[in-house]
Amino acid sequence: MALVAFSVILIFLGIVCGAALVAAALGWAAVTGAALWVLFPLLVIGGFTLLAMGASHAAVRQVSRPAALALLALALLAAVALVAGAIGLAPRDAAGASAWPMWYVLIVAGGIGVTGAAAFRGRAAPAHED
User: Fold this and answer.
1) Distance between alpha carbon 118 and the CA centroid of its chain, in Å?
2) pLDDT of residue 63
3) What are the structural domain ranges in the chain?
4) pLDDT per position in the chain (130 positions), as tens?
5) Which of 13, 32, 92, 122 is most buried when burial is the number of CB atoms within 10 A of its CB?
6) pLDDT of the residue at 91
7) Angstrom distance (rounded) from CA 33 to CA 89
8) What single DSSP character describes residue 126?
9) Distance between CA 19 and CA 125 in Å, rounded?
10) What is the per-residue pLDDT across 116-129, written as a single tens digit (0 to 9) for each?
11) DSSP secondary structure string, 45-113?
12) Which residues make Cβ contacts (< 8 Å) with residue 105, sequence separation at least 6?
């Protein structure tokens, strides 16, 4: 149970890092440095890996689905922000914030989110053989 909780915390922190990247690109937060760029995928992938290695199938399914949906929501936010910026609706800071963080979050969160959501699509729990 502690392993599942630790995995959830790592995934959550990774999602927070991705959200901070998008918020900074939109001028909603003052975030600098490369730490979030590295920590976002590492924490999410590390959390999923730890979960898959040590938790039961049911626990993996319980955590993966909501985490994948949160990542897909984050990717959707980045996509909406990119479109809004392209048509001139997104707020930009005075320095003209770069869209690279949003593209990064869109690709990473979208890729991991789709993989996590599709991993258990339509499958029942495996039968245990004795």
Assistant:
1) 15
2) 87
3) 2-118
4) 788 889 999 999 999 999 999 888 887 888 777 899 999 999 999 998 998 888 788 888 888 889 999 999 999 999 998 888 788 776 654 345 678 888 999 999 999 999 888 877 765 555 555 4
5) 13
6) 61
7) 26
8) P
9) 32
10) 888 777 655 555 55
11) HHHHHHHHHHS-HHHHHHHHHHHHHHHHHHHHHHHHHHHHHHTT-S---TT---SHHHHHHHHHHHHHH
12) 18, 21, 22, 40, 74, 75, 78
Structure tokens at 54: 């040590």
Q: Is the pTM of this model over 0.90?
A: no
Six token digits for residue 111: 């890729």
Element of type H or E holding 123: none
